Amino acid sequence: MTETIETIETIRYTADVVVTTTDGHVLLIERGWEPHKGAWALPGGHVDPGETSRTAAARELAEEAGVYAAPEELEPLGVWDAPDRDPRGRYVTAAYHLTVLPGTIVEAGDDATRAEWWPLGDLPPLAFDHADIIRSHRA
């Protein structure tokens, strides 16, 4: 008799936000923690218990970059769930988009060491699959 052993995979749920300006810049944060400490990434983070991904995205945007938006202002972009997208294990993210005016003030907070506007055509190397998420917005 062959015995089958099932592996239960822990899946973590996150939300990310692509914030662009009307003149072609995107908001990135410099990560203050591993993985990818010091790398540029989209604002985002874990969805808390009892929270929707859209609410989490708005909360993380405020915490990490000082940009405040109502959850309903965030437009869904899609779900990214490649098994290897995060070195910590299986992470599934729901990504959202928000457009703001040029000159919107950003201020790093929470686990971000910096928050800056980058030209969409001249981005630094990004953590995780965030370049793919940004490209999906531009498609």
What does it look like?
The chain is globular. A hairpin with an 8-residue loop joins β2 and β3. 16% of the residues lie in helices and 35% in strands. The strands form 2 sheets. Strands 4-1-6-5 form a 4-stranded mixed sheet, with helices on both faces. Strands 3-2-7 form a 3-stranded antiparallel sheet, with no helix packed on it. The mean pLDDT is 94. The chain starts with 10 loop residues before the first strand and ends with a helix. The chain contains 2 helices and 7 strands; from the N terminus they run ββββαβββα. The protein has a single domain, classed as Alpha-Beta Complex (Nucleoside Triphosphate Pyrophosphohydrolase). The longest helix is centred in the middle third of the chain and has 13 residues. With 139 residues, the protein is an alpha+beta fold.
Distance between the termini: 52 Å
- Taken in chain order, the helices and strands follow as EEEEHEEEH
Do you know the CATH topology?
Answer: Nucleoside Triphosphate Pyrophosphohydrolase
Number of helices: 2
Relevant CATH superfamily: Nucleoside Triphosphate Pyrophosphohydrolase
Give the number of DSSP strands: 7
Please give the order of strands in the largest beta sheet: 4-1-6-5
Tell me, what's the shape? globular
Helix-residue proportion? 10-25%
> Nearest-angstrom radius of gyration?
16 Å
Average pLDDT over all residues: 94
Largest sheet: 4 strands, mixed
Alpha-beta content class: alpha+beta
Number of domains: 1
Poorly predicted regions are none
Question: In the CATH hierarchy, what is the class?
Answer: Alpha Beta
